[in-house]
Amino acid sequence: MNRAQTTLLALALTLAAPHLGGCEDKASPGAAPTSSALAPAKPKTEASRAFGVEPTGNKVSFVMDAPIEKIFGEAEGAIAGEVFADLEDITKSTGLLKVDLDKLVLYQQKRENEAAAFGERSKSDLQNEHARNWLEIGKDVSEETKGKNRFVELKITKVETDGPKSVLGMQGAERKVVLKVTGDLRLHERTAPKTAKIEATFRFEGDKPVSVAVKTLEPVGVSLEEHDVRPRDTLGKILQKTQEELSTLGKKVSKDAMISLDFTAKAR
User: Fold this and answer.
1) Checking CA distances to 198, which of 23, 165, 208, 232 falls within 20 to 30 Å?
2) Do 212 and 200 form a contact (C-beta atoms < 8 A)?
């Protein structure tokens, strides 16, 4: 190999180095620690009753509000899991919910600049593809990688209320409580604590509880940086953006997703 060929080879290796398999992408500076799947929830008391999430009729949605683009996410029938509710003392309840990101669909509203009006809401197949790449569940990632990132998990660790604690002490076919629920949210292999204000409506047939309908009263903010969700290629590798591209991206993608949940769980 002559000197010119050696120089060209060295240049090619230098340009290719960021994309070689031996190089690891560094996590976002504010990323939460990595973690494995969360342990299943267990009832805290003998009085706890198990409620299983209904596979249909449940929904996860979110809004990401950036200056020139709003992104809406919807995942119908994506929630599974189980809640253990102590109806004698609702603050002793636990649970584990899972959300299947394979069912997530994105929509968008765009405008030319910050002074213009937003256009109609529409779906972009390319944007949906990019979102799946960011989450590392795209078409070209390995099944192992997709398996690690496909599900979002929320484990309830603490329940508080300013109202009555005993649902059994209430009267009527529908008994409603407003709760402050704290738990661990695992998304993209990173777990962070979250708190949500929810409304839980327990339905009874006589003295027998048959189901509970749960919905968030206020959206829960989830940070993309905290869960290391950022621009990636189809294989999950970080895309190297220029400063100008990052500035433009910041006007299109909010740093936080404001998430809402709505589901019904039946007594087992």
Assistant:
1) 208
2) yes
Three-class SS state of 73 = strand
Distance, in Å, from the CA atom of 260 to the CA atom of 215, rounded to the nearest integer, reads 7
Q: Which of 250, 252, 38 is nearest to 157 (CA)?
A: 38
DSSP class of residue 92 equals: G
Specify the residue for token string 């059994």: 168
Tokens in use for 230? 């950022």
What pTM was computed for the model?
Answer: 0.85
Top pLDDT among 29 and 79 is at: 79
pLDDT in tens, 141-196: 999 999 999 999 999 999 999 999 999 999 999 999 999 999 999 999 999 999 99
Question: 258: pLDDT confidence band, cut at 50, 70 and 90?
Answer: very high
For residue 249, how many C-alpha atoms fall within 13 Å in the half-sphere facing its CB? 13
Query: What CATH code is assigned to 28-267?
Result: 2.40.128.110
Q: What's the CA angle centered on 88, arms 85 and 92, to 5 degrees?
A: 50
Quickly list H helices, 69-227: 125-134, 143-149
Asked if 254 and 222 touch (Cβ cutoff 8 Å), the reply is no
Reduced to 3 DSSP states, what percent helix, strand and coil does the chain have, rounded to the nearest 5?
Answer: 20, 40, 40
What is the predicted pLDDT for the residue at 225? 94
Residue 94 neighbours by CB under 8 Å, 6+ apart: 41, 42, 43, 44, 48, 83, 84, 155, 156, 157
State pLDDT tens for residues 132-141. Answer: 999 999 999 9
Residue 234, C-beta contacts closer than 8 angstroms, at least 6 positions apart? 133, 138, 139, 140, 141
